[in-house]
Amino acid sequence: MSKEVGSLSIHSENIFPIIKKWLYSDHDIFIRELISNGCDAITKLKRLEGMGEIDLKGEKNFYVKVLLDKEKKTLTFLDNGLGMTQEEVKKYINQIAFSGAEDFIKKYKDKGEQDQIIGHFGLGFYSAFMVADVVEINTLSYQEGAVPVHWRCEGGTEFEMEEGTKSSRGTEIVLHIGEEGEEFLEEYTLRSVIEKYCSFMPYPIYLEDVHKEPEKDKDGNIIIKEPEALNNIQPLYLKRPNECTDEEYKEFYRETFKDFKEPLFWIHLNMDYPFNLKGILYFPRFSPVDMTEGQIKLYNSQVFVADNIKEVIPEFLLLLKGVIDCPDLPLNVSRSFLQNDGFAKKVSNYITKKVADKLNALYKNERENYEKYWEDIGHFIKYGILKDDKFYERIKDILIFKTTDSKYVTLEEYLERQKDQEEKNVFYTTDQTQQSQYIQMLKDNGIESLVLTHPMDAAFISFLEMKNNHVHFKRVDSDIADLLKDKEVQENKEEDRKIRESLEKLFKKISGKKDLKVQLENLKAKIPAMVVLSEDNRRMQELMERYQASGMENMSIPSEETLVLNKKHSLVQYMIAHVEEESELMNLLPKQIYDLAMLSHKQLSPEEMTEFIQRSNEILEKMVS
Ligand code: ADP
């Protein structure tokens, strides 16, 4: 074979600098492209055997090797796949690979950063020039009598091709790394990139530093080590779900996510029709305060494409961890295309449905476990409900709520107990410690409260009310005075009105709040007083606070707090009898009662707290003097 010099069929002269620069952001993908080409070459070879075209005589040892030579500054990708003849190099490398690259440039040159293609699939062999100044190919085809080929290109549009020296079947791509690619001459970097993109590729991938000193034992003998593949050629998700053990699922999780906390449970996705999708989604242990993103890795036929692609995986599911392999997804296209792609939506819906099915099955068959997991998965589910109406529809009947007794009930079960009430009130606490007085009073009257302490719960409550318009969520310190009234006590309306007016005057004065309302009731509770604030008013106030916190205009809503005094309580009776008096006790008592009621309702200001403690001490001093 005589030396052949030619010109690549590329029309724009300076295509290489463009692609180098354009792809700067993730130029590590050349590793994925070259290794997956090597794997493809092995698959093709095996397929030929399967078709009876060749006899591999029981050969089993297929691999892709990456050789690192820091001195020569080369990276070599070696495979024992089917190799190429001279004709094939001409066709696949000189024509197809480069025209593919040219198409690629045409398509994406004018697109901005925000429209990055997802996987850069289709770039292929050409991506070697992202980091190399010179690329060489040494290849020997499997075909009888094939002549080895040596091909070389210096990154321009010229190449040379001649008979080579390769004596074993397969292909060797040698990259002479230029300045842009120097980081890939570090073994550590190289290893992490291979692990990122190639962990599940179907043939063993080895990395070898050719100048690395062999390890020796203490007598100076070289330790011979079996080379270890960097990848798992049979990732668990490819197996049938009924062939996998719990231990295997856990191990796969540990290996893939380097997370040594056990996942709670998982879903094995395995779909052949109408599209092909396999994968495993894990529900990790969440910490209730921190909603950090999980990690869902997307693969295309065992080749890693990207993490957390929102167009394919519903956003709320990104809190999970998992791998999804979908060979049918058109991943060589832009994200904005995927967003509008019906197929990507179908995949996304399928995943959502599977997650909802799994949760429903857990609820039905393992309610005890489901309740145990709730602490971890509850806010994930709530987030999903707020984000995705379809998910809500699938999951609404299995939403559970923790009660102050640490039991779990569904909304329906909770409301069931209030059959006789026309208004369906759901009482909840946002702070079990501070609101303990109210919780106890309601409990004494046979009313259970739900614990809704997550910052997201306010939005969640509003959402549920919108969906079930007969249901009203009420915080334990809201409209509860009526519920706690002792209806057996005879009231004297006229007398009560007068007393209430004078007490209101007194409390307005000591609290300094002109708008304070005072209500006088016979309560079935052992406290002298409580502060209540209507649910609507409190929600409005909280909304305004949020607006203000986010720097929006300052609109404060007047608070409509009501001090409910319990006429049955001896301290209140004392105040009623002495309301007009100026005495030491009447100076201390109402203030103390007011502060105690306030304390359960919200945090006192530092000044109020100081005054409260001083006054409490004063009262104690009186008792011993
Ligand atoms: P793609 O892999 O998407 O087809 P590439 O540009 O990566 O595009 O490669 C072009 C062609 O070159 C491949 O289809 C294949 O026929 C051939 N080729 C590339 N690498 C190898 C290899 N390691 N062994 C055999 N053939 C190869």
SSE topology:
Blueprint: E1 4-7, H1 15-22, H2 29-50, E2 64-69, E3 74-79, H3 86-108, E4 132-140, E5 149-153, E6 158-163, E7 170-177, H4 187-198, E8 205-209, H5 246-257, E9 265-271, E10 277-283, E11 295-300, E12 303-307, E13 321-325, H6 335-339, H7 342-365, H8 367-387, H9 389-395, E14 400-402, E15 408-410, H10 411-416, E16 424-429, H11 436-444, E17 450-451, H12 457-467, E18 471-475, H13 493-511, E19 517-521, E20 529-532, H14 535-549, E21 562-566, H15 570-578, H16 584-601, H17 606-624
Parallel strand pairs: 2-8, 11-13, 16-17, 16-18, 19-21
Antiparallel strand pairs: 1-6, 2-3, 3-7, 4-5, 4-7, 5-6, 9-10, 10-13, 11-12, 14-15, 20-21
Helix pairs in contact: 2-4, 7-8, 7-9, 8-9, 8-12, 16-17
The chain binds adenosine-5'-diphosphate.
The site of adenosine-5'-diphosphate (ADP) has 18 residues, from helix 2 and helix 3.
Give a structural overview.
The protein is of the alpha+beta class and 625 residues long. The model is unreliable at 112-120 (pLDDT under 50). It is 38% helix and 18% strand. It is elongated. A hairpin with a 4-residue loop joins strand 2 (64-69) and strand 3. The strands form five sheets. Strands 1-6-5-4-7-3-2-8 form an eight-stranded mixed beta sheet, with helices on one face. Bound molecules: adenosine-5'-diphosphate (ADP). Residues 33, 37-38, 41, 79, 81-82, 84, 92-93, 96-97, 100, 122, 124-126, 171 line the site of adenosine-5'-diphosphate.
